[in-house]
Amino acid sequence: TEAVYVKVRGVTDVESGYSNGHAEHPSYEQVCTGRTGHAEVVRLTYDPAQIGVREILEIFFLIHDPTTPNRQGNDTGTQYRSGIYWSTEAQKKVADDMIAELTEGKAYGAPIVTEVLPVSNYWPAEDYHQDFFENNPTQGYCMAVAAPKVAKFRKTFAERVKG
Fold first, then answer.
1. In the chain, at which residue ranges do the beta strands (DSSP E only) sit?
2. How far apart are CA 96 and CA 94, in angstroms?
3. Who's near 21: CB < 8 A, 6+ residues apart?
């Protein structure tokens, strides 16, 4: 997801991290055990004059499968759950409304399992996880999962790609 959002016009910062777990200052190795309760996330900073929460979430729902619990690509475990972790009630409302619209419109062949919760206990991922796609374009995950997400974003939201 980081690989896509760094290319979105209006998104000013993207940081990979871990959120909504119970461990303080978790490491990647700890999160991978599934015992910290954290989800792997990206924290976005954006310019609301250029892009809104709805557009950010439209991209989110395009580039990942929100119907499969605890899985993204070939990665499985609670740390790979689909989640939107909000910091304002306005963000929560946009997320809830969008999920309701997608559900009503039967946008997916299965129920959306994305959790919508207030952000809690966020911790940035290690430096080697930041800009992972940009720094490791030929790595297996990047080629098999991240690159197709970036291509899908570029095709569907061409007007949103940073120039």
1. 11-19, 39-46, 71-72, 75-76, 83-86, 115-118, 123-124
2. 6
3. 31, 36, 37, 38, 39, 121
pLDDT tens digits along 100-145: 999 999 999 999 999 999 999 999 999 999 999 999 999 999 999 9
DSSP helix/strand/coil, 41: strand
Provide the H-helix boundaries in 9-131.
28-32, 53-63, 89-104
Residue whose tokens read 């929460």: 53
pTM strictly above 0.85: yes
Question: pLDDT averaged over consecutive 10-residue blocks of the chain (163 residues)?
Answer: 97 98 97 97 98 98 95 91 98 99 96 98 98 96 94 97 92
Q: Residues 6 or more apart from 148 whose CB is under 8 A from it?
A: none
- Residue for token digits 């619990």? 69
- Domains with residue ranges and CATH for the chain: 2-157 (3.30.1060.10)
